[in-house]
Design goal:
By secondary structure, the chain is α/β, with parallel strands linked by helices. 25% of the residues lie in helices and 27% in strands. Bound molecules: adenosine-5'-triphosphate and magnesium ion.
Amino acid sequence: MTIEFNVHSLQETEQLAENLAGLLSPPDVLTLEGDLGAGKTTFTKALARSLGITRTVNSPTFTILKQYEGRVPFNHLDVYRLADSDEDLGWDELFYGDAVSVVEWAHLIEDDLPEERLEIRIQHTGEASRKFVFIPKGERFEKICEAISL
Ligand SMILES: Nc1ncnc2c1ncn2[C@@H]1O[C@H](COP(=O)(O)OP(=O)(O)OP(=O)(O)O)[C@@H](O)[C@H]1O
Ligand SMILES: [Mg+2]
């Protein structure tokens, strides 16, 4: 099962993130894939805002993991720099803890991801338009995908 959303503006991307955020609870894990400028960080910022994170969420490229306190605790991971590493960074503690997590470049740590998760692929389809493809892994995320509207 996959669900696609075609958005035509930045505002619609933010609305989609907000609608999804309302359906999430810890320890849900989302993975985000998409080329440079696809909108991964934009989507993540809007999602975090809707989870009640008031601090500014920036791309964690040089830190791998940033953790935020909020109404719902939030982990933002960018594992790009772990490409050739076998480091165990305590993934289970993160992915089965009390926060919602977003993982960018998640395919690089595929084996460490929980089986149940929501894969999101963002494609650039025009200057301000994007295609979001949601691929739910497991029953919980199938239900969430069925409930999302835009
Ligand atoms: N519909 C849209 N959804 C998301 N971003 C959009 C949209 N329309 C225009 N943009 C612009 O596209 C850019 C997306 O950048 P963003 O940093 O979110 O991408 P990214 O996927 O995180 O890239 P990188 O891999 O370089 O970190 C922003 O400048 C944003 O304003
Ligand atoms: Mg980014």
